[in-house]
From TrEMBL:
InterPro entries: Cyt_c-like_dom, Cyt_c-like_dom_sf, Cytochrome_c_Oxidase_Subunit. One of its GO terms (molecular function) is metal ion binding. Residues 26-114 form the Cytochrome c domain. Residues 1-27 form the signal peptide. The keyword Nucleotide-binding does not apply. The keyword tRNA processing does not apply. Keywords: Electron transport, Heme, Iron, Metal-binding, Signal, Transport. This is Cytochrome c553.
Amino acid sequence: MPRTLPRTLASALTGLLLALTTLSAQAQAAGRPAPEALKLRALAATCAQCHGTDGRAVEGEATIRLAGLPADYLLTQLMAFRSGQRPATIMHQITKGYSQEQLESLATYFGGLK
């Protein structure tokens, strides 16, 4: 016999889902980032320790500025690190921890910054 939720619980869950959907729409209308944008920004924040906040490395430091570089160039370099084609001290290890989609998203994100 299939289990069903009690009517009050199902009604409460439906109400919660509707409230969350409404809050998300309100946040987007108010200019707040959508959940996917926040997820991407959090992913990009993992690069901040070496490459600076939003890929804006400090001038004179050994790491390069990622913000504003062409996305296709960034992706090519990330893939070269991942394959070992481009030597590195740590980037070859870091890039192996990301999926192809994540690397593409990071390249697009940093490429879109000024």
